[in-house]
Please model this.
Amino acid sequence: MSVFSHPEFDHEQVLYCHDPAIELNAIIALHSTALGPAAGGCRMHPYESADEALTDVLRLSKGMSYKNAIAGLPLGGGKSVIIADPKRDDKAELLRAFSRHVQTLNGQYWTAIDVGVSPKDADILAENSDFFCSGITILRWL
Model:
């Protein structure tokens, strides 16, 4: 399914991330940056298909727009999904490859942990990206 014809698509930007060397397949969805940089966690899940992953990331990122606005945060909504089993032996390398894609957005998207990405993985995500945050980071930033 094309992202443009997807019933959940009303987003500013959707980025497909691929790194064949590590078999990274991920999607970053920026629903809105009207209130500030898009912010939302990174989910790692072995989706059955890219279409299933796309549907999930579009719905989740839109939800983050509302969640951040209701909380009164100067943040928009975004989310990312990595199409992979979080129990992969090379998970750290996969997260490093993904975080390099986050870095290319130059702060338009801030990511965090979510399902399949643990607090232990946070340091790995932060190795190659200045745009990884935790709840504590957001409170300091505000």
The longest helix spans residues 50-70. The CA atoms of residues 46 and 84 lie 4 Å apart. The first strand starts at residue 13 and ends at 19. Residues 3-141 form a domain with the Rossmann fold fold (CATH 3.40.50.10860).
